[in-house]
Design goal:
The complex is a heterodimer.
Chain A (H helix, E strand, L loop, with lengths): L19 H17 L4 H12 L1 H25 L9 H34 L1 H6 L5 H33 L4 H28 L3 H31 L8 H29 L8 H25 L2 H23 L7 H4 L6 H7 L6 H29 L13 H29 L7 H25 L15 H10 L4 H31 L7 H14 L12
Chain B lengths: L7 E10 L2 E11 L4 E5 L6 H8 L7 E6 L2 E2 L4 H7 E4 L11 H11 L4 H14 L15 H12 L6 E5 L7 H16 L3 E5 L3 H7 L2 E6 L2 E6 L1 H9 L3 E8 L4 H7 L5 E7 L2 E7 L2 H13 L4 E6 L4 H8 L6
Parallel strand pairs in B: 3-8, 3-9, 6-7, 7-8
Antiparallel strand pairs in B: 1-2, 1-4, 4-5, 9-10, 11-13, 11-14, 12-13
Classes of the chains: A mainly alpha, B alpha/beta.
């Protein structure tokens, strides 16, 4: 990292000719200095801190020492077999443990502490009054985590090269595992940053840090178990097309949720009057589109109804979870947000739902669920245009009737629970302030009540204990499972088909007045002072070209 | 471009925490080059209103403006123009003074030579240049205060909000701080400053606002507030007599418009309730009563006295 040039010239300083190596170093520093101008300030500051930090030094030294000890121990254990057998794989497993601990535990926890510590120590406030955007704060902290990962990778790289030379593990497998460990570390670091934004209260930070450490420990243990399992195979199926398709699908999902978490962390750090929601909603739609693309491709390629079921199920869960968060947003639109509302008819028809607020959020989730249902129907119709209806290969396989039942009832349930949640929170907001976490909690409790109250009654009535009864109609999990995967009694199915969608329609209509109110919000003009400054900035960017004053000018 | 509006303006500002009214209908403004002293006991609402102004908190109602921009709706434009020095602040571990300021200069978007110029100026101004390589967590209180002031002014803001900048400083550091604030005001910066050390404030503030229990009780120059109090017809009068002042005190004692009589050698100090007309009448009566009065006049009040009078001594 660069060193700042001295800012004060000392009197009487004479230019002293430096030795050649020192001149080279000064030049390198200047180049790095110029390069650092374009880097995120937080990355520059945290790198400076890390390079002087005892914790980083000790951890890095420990990684090197553990790598060295394992090399000695491994070679001693293998003994003369090192010359004849392919022993690299077991050494690799040891090195992986040494590397993955800092990568999956220390770096993500460091990212969490880096932000949580700023909030505890009062330095975050100083940071937040600068002109840094929340997105820059998150990316700076994440960049610092990435840099630390790279340093750990570089520390263990010679050991990994050693395992490759010992044979037993090929380079693609090593790179594949390291790549996914890097992604894991990156994702966990982002999760750590998001968790650090949840609360500034010290006691809650302590509670969250305990959960985080537990989660990181699990991730470390899981990744080691997985790698031990994988190194037991001869080789990963790199020649298999489906292996790469599976990886591409996984990476699509990974980056989708990575973008969502990054947007959520930025939103948490955004000033209260600013728009915290639109970016998140855009990411949600992008995720939906990507997921629909993958599932559509799989359905058309393989023609198995299960893909459509997975599409409906995952989308339903996704939009329920997203809807819960959107319902918990504040209902008030600040003047700042209202300055950016869409104005035209088309803009208001299609983009109003991206504006913050629980009513637009409910409608946004509902509209996306409808689009999921429509996409499924279109997918089925396209298939039927060119192919016969796929025949179920086994008795419990998915049929079109079951799929429609799942889609119809699922849509009804999500609408009912999201709509009821929004109405409940709207009532609650008349008496108390409802922060995001409380809003989420209330809606989760509503769902749990819907599941467990009838279940408790059910268990108390001896005649009903044997199986599903319509008493469980408020329990979406059991009801959907029963209606989709088991032999449902036609009368019960009829009642479910009548009751659940009807309840969905009623709850939807009950939410319509709030949605209409949200649509009625119109864009407001910028304050005069803001407009003046915008004009000034615009004029400075593109000064007016002088017009000719006469034909000969 | 010189703006016509006040550089700082609080308009009907409210901030409630549950049932506690931390800030309750506070309005005042500060012009360019003016130093505004914000005075009040602990928990009066000074820090809350300053935090709102610094875009660290949202008002429950009302708004505050910096150079005409709302802190609620345009916090990014406000941050460009405002430097905030909180009453307590943390420093980063493993960062020296120069790196600390460099980081904040970068965070305010300063690049290249512009950043180096800003660093050079701020370190010179706050006399931190000799401490450039010292770790920030090893600085004394006074040095940290200077560092925080340097951080607040690194992007050359037009407005400075300083919350208790003199707290915990030794007399020499306080004098240095006062000098710095004067120079900043002379450079045209609008400064809002809160302090418990009222004598310090009296010397450097053009205007003061006295706040108690979230309410702004008085705003204006010290003299204006004093006049405002005198409009309530209570003033402190000093009478010097030729010889012993005891007969004067005896004569004054028992009059309904006189209270708190104190005798100190040849002079008597007392509170008189009434306007200038009645003061003239009192003097005439004293002379007619044969009292040998050689001096009669109102005593100028210190900021501390004004504060105590405005808050009626109910400091928490």
């Amino acid at each position: 990292m660069t060193t700042l040039e001295p800012v004060v010239a000392r009197d009487g300083d004479e230019p002293v000719s430096e030795p050649a190596d020192r001149r080279w170093w000064s030049r390198a520093e200047q180049v790095l200095g110029r390069f650092s101008e374009w880097l995120n300030p937080i990355l520059v500051k945290e790198t400076r801190q890390a390079l002087k930090s005892r914790q980083f030094g000790i951890t890095f030294a420990l990684v090197l020492a553990c790598g060295w000890v394992w090399s000695m121990l491994g070679v001693a254990l293998i003994g003369p077999g090192i010359f004849y057998g392919a022993q690299g794989v077991w050494l690799f497993a040891g090195y992986y443990v040494v590397l993955s601990f800092p990568l999956l535990v220390i770096v993500p926890f460091g990212a969490f502490r880096s932000l949580a510590g700023e909030r505890e120590d009062g330095t975050y406030e100083m940071l937040s009054v600068t002109t840094l955007k929340p997105r820059q704060i998150v990316s700076g902290k994440l960049g610092s985590a990435v840099l630390q990962m790279l340093v750990y990778f570089s520390g263990i790289a010679p050991c990994l090269a050693f395992t490759y030379m010992l044979e037993g593990i090929d380079m693609p497998t090593i790179l594949f595992m390291l790549f996914y460990t890097f992604l894991g570390s990156l994702g966990l670091s982002l999760a750590g940053l998001l968790i650090a934004t949840v609360t500034a209260e010290k006691h809650w930070q302590v509670v969250l840090s305990v959960f985080l450490i537990f989660g990181l420990g699990l991730a470390f243990w899981g990744s080691c178990a997985l790698v031990f399992e994988m190194v037991g195979w001869n080789s990963l199926p790199f020649q298999d097309e489906e292996f790469w398709i599976g990886n591409a699908a996984f990476l699509t999902g990974y980056w989708g949720y990575f973008a969502l978490l990054a947007a959520a962390a930025s939103a948490q750090l955004t000033f209260a009057s600013d728009n915290r929601s639109t970016a998140l909603r855009m990411v949600m739609v992008a995720q939906q589109v990507l997921f629909a693309g993958w599932m559509g491709w799989a359905w058309l390629k393989y023609g198995e109804m299960e893909f459509l079921l997975v599409f409906l199920m995952m989308s339903g869960l996704h939009w329920y979870a997203m809807g819960v968060f959107m319902n918990s947003e504040s209902g008030e639109l600040s003047q700042r947000v209202r300055r950016q509302l869409p104005q035209s008819f088309l803009g208001r028809a299609f983009l109003t739902w991206f504006a913050p607020g629980p009513a637009t959020g409910f409608m946004f989730a509902f509209a996306n669920l409808i689009s999921v249902a429509l996409m499924t129907l279109i997918g089925v119709l396209i298939w039927l245009m060119f192919n016969p209806m796929p025949t179920p290969s086994w008795s419990g396989a998915m049929t079109l009737e079951r799929l429609l039942t799942f889609g119809g009832l699922g849509l009804g349930y999500v609408t009912v629970y999201l709509g009821l949640g929004r109405l409940l929170l709207s009532g609650l907001r008349r008496f108390i302030q409802v922060p995001m976490l409380l809003g989420v909690l209330v809606q989760v409790l509503l769902l749990l009540a819907g599941c467990f109250i009838p279940l408790t009654i059910h268990l108390m009535i001896p005649d009903l204990r044997r199986g599903y009864s319509l008493l469980e109609i408020t329990n979406p999990i059991w009801t959907l499972g029963y209606a989709t995967f088991e032999s449902i009694v036609p009368d019960e199915l009829f009642i479910l088909w009548c009751a659940v969608p009807l309840a969905g329609v009623v709850i939807f209509l009950a939410n319509v007045p709030a949605v209409v109110t949200a649509v009625r919000h119109v864009r407001i003009a910028k304050p005069r002072r803001v407009a003046e400054e915008d004009l000034l900035i615009e004029a400075q960017r593109s000064p007016p070209t002088p017009e000719p004053v006469n034909p000969l000018d | 471009m010189i703006s016509s509006h006040p550089m700082i303006e609080l308009r009907g500002l409210y901030r409630f925490f549950g049932r506690t009214k931390a800030v309750n209908d506070v309005s005042f403004s500060v012009a360019r080059g003016q130093v505004f002293g914000y005075i009040g006991p602990n928990g009066a609402g000074k820090t809350t209103s300053m935090r709102i102004l610094a875009t660290l908190d949202m008002p429950t109602q009302g708004d505050a403006f910096v150079d005409g921009f709302s802190v609620v709706n345009d916090p990014d434009r406000v941050r460009n123009r405002l430097g905030f020095m909180p009453d307590s602040f943390g420093t980063y571990a493993n960062v020296n003074v120069r790196e600390y300021l460099d980081f904040f200069a970068r965070a305010y978007g300063l690049r290249g030579s512009e950043r180096l110029r800003a660093l050079r100026y701020v370190m010179g101004f706050t006399k931190l240049d000799t401490l450039a390589d010292k770790p920030t967590n090893g600085l004394s209180k006074g040095m940290k205060q200077r560092l925080c002031l340097g951080r607040a002014m690194i992007h050359n803001p037009a407005v400075l909000v300083l919350d208790e900048p003199a707290a915990g400083l030794d007399p020499r550091a306080r004098i240095q701080l006062r000098e710095m604030i004067r120079r900043l005001a002379a450079d045209g910066k609008a400064i809002l400053i809160s302090s418990h050390i009222l004598t310090e404030l009296a010397e450097m503030c053009d205007m003061v606002g006295i706040i108690e229990q979230g309410r702004l009780l008085a705003v204006g120059s010290v003299a204006e507030i004093q006049r405002g109090q005198q409009a309530h017809h209570v003033s402190q009068v000093l009478v010097r007599a030729l010889g012993d002042a005891a007969p004067v005190a005896h004569w004054l004692n028992g009059r309904p418009d006189i209270s708190q009589i104190e005798v100190d050698g040849q002079q008597v100090i007392f509170l008189h309730q009434g306007d200038l007309e009645s003061e003239a009448e009192l003097l005439r009566e004293m002379v007619e009563a044969g009292l040998r009065v050689v001096a009669f006049g109102r005593q100028a009040k210190t900021l501390e006295e004004v504060f105590m009078q405005v808050t009626q001594g109910h400091v928490q």
